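Quick one before lunch.
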Amino acid sequence: MKMFCHQCQETAKNSGCTSRGVCGKDHITANHMDVLIYNLKGLACLAQKKAEAGKSISDEVEMILGSLFATVTNVNFDAERIQGLTFSCIARKRSLVRELGPGADLPVEAAFDAQSVADLEQAFDAASILAIEDEDVRSLKSFIVYALKGISAYAEHARVLGRQDDELDREVVDELAATVGERSLDELTEVLVATGHTSAKTMRLLDAANTGTYGHPEITRVNIGTRNRPGILISGHDLKDMAELLEQTKDTGVDVYTHSEMLPANYYPAFKKYDHFVGNYGGAWHNQKNDFATFNGPILMTTNCITPVQDAYRDRIFTTGRVGYPGIPHIPDRSDGKPKDFSPLIELAKRCDPPQQIEEGEIVGGFARHQVQQLADKIVAAVKSGAIRKFVVMGGCDGRMRSRHYFTELAQKLPHDTVILTAGCAKYRYNKLGLGEIEGIPRVLDAGQCNDSYSIAATAFALRDAFGLEDVNELPLDFAIAWYEQKAVAVLLALLAMGFKGVRIGPTLPGFVSENVKKKIVETFALTVTTNVDSDLAAITA
Ligand code: SF4
Ligand code: SF3
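Model of the FE4-S3 cluster complex:
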């Protein structure tokens, strides 16, 4: 076995990638990610001690969040960048050990030191999740770490926009530290539940950061065609990158288009004001091979999901933030309060052909919590009259496997009196099908990115209040959530922590969930897994 990774839904045989990732991650990068996480766990233990001594752990948290984010599926394929993060983590641990004084009870993850890549390689076996023998302990520890990866992504997005919360920082550190050493299954289950609460709070913080900075998303008809000028395609989830790119491309003759998870940028008032912001190009992340080839201009990957880079666009793709890919130019982080410098993309765009049009028309979105609240009276009336009989949450991730056709088919077969609530790139499975409207309310209400999943929960709670219900589970609400990477793991735990019951996820239960852990979460949260469209449809419409 050259590596072991089972963090995403596409893991080989729903069990683990052992020689090369289905995502394209090679075994060297995978093993170095394990060593990075091993050291981050040690850093979390030391940060706990620092916090107990009454000192700020803001720098340690920043390092933990950024590094965990870099290990999310389809973020960073560059082993050298991962090694760099590990060496920074080790240097921080070293200085903390000096500062705090070496304690006899220091766990090996905290004490581990390395000077060279060869030293890091020595830790491959100890750092592998397979070093944990008990499969239930392994399962729960993996579950917690994967959720923390998702939380880190959301927390970092909030931080980039100036929102940070000491209490949340401490929770992340405590939960990561809790995956070190011997723990009982009950203790780990408690930590997993706590991680769900941390996730919910982080998502609320991010919602406040996004809407506080760029305004509340509004109902928007997004153009999916092209114009006859060169363009830059921006993908991922980072709205600050979006803001700075729009500002820097103004009056340059270069247009801007969104791809995949950046589509919801079209819904924000702060971005809609730019005439050169044309619309969205292409589909979900796994279509990038085709979409990037025909786009003709530079592409900026701000976060996940980047897939193995193809020759057709190798010389015009750029990474930034936590994203990395060997041999691909990287736009450096902000420094001295100055914005990132996107001029290499702008200069390249001027020499490129305009995008080749691959489709035309519009898609409608912008149904985040504030906008839906404006429509609350209309929605409540439609439910009372029987025009809307059910809401089905179908948010989450898209993926490349054939099994994902389930979500398209389900959306097509849902009766015309059902409304789909969505967020995340899962929407591309059905957002161009023209599923129509109910009394002026679109049947697909897109709240935004996976980062905006909190908005769907807030909408459900607002509807609960509008109907005067005690419990959100009394609403005519069902779930068919698609998961792929670790942000979806964080969102799932957040929904469970917020009290949603009967959540159905698919296309499979995570491969990292052992039989006993599965039994436990199914019993506690009435969690179910998708089966086939007709059976699930019968359950949803019963
Ligand atoms: Fe496999 Fe997913 Fe890990 Fe990639 S991220 S190596 S596909 S489990
Ligand atoms: Fe999509 Fe990667 Fe998860 Fe943000 S872009 S939802 S998969």
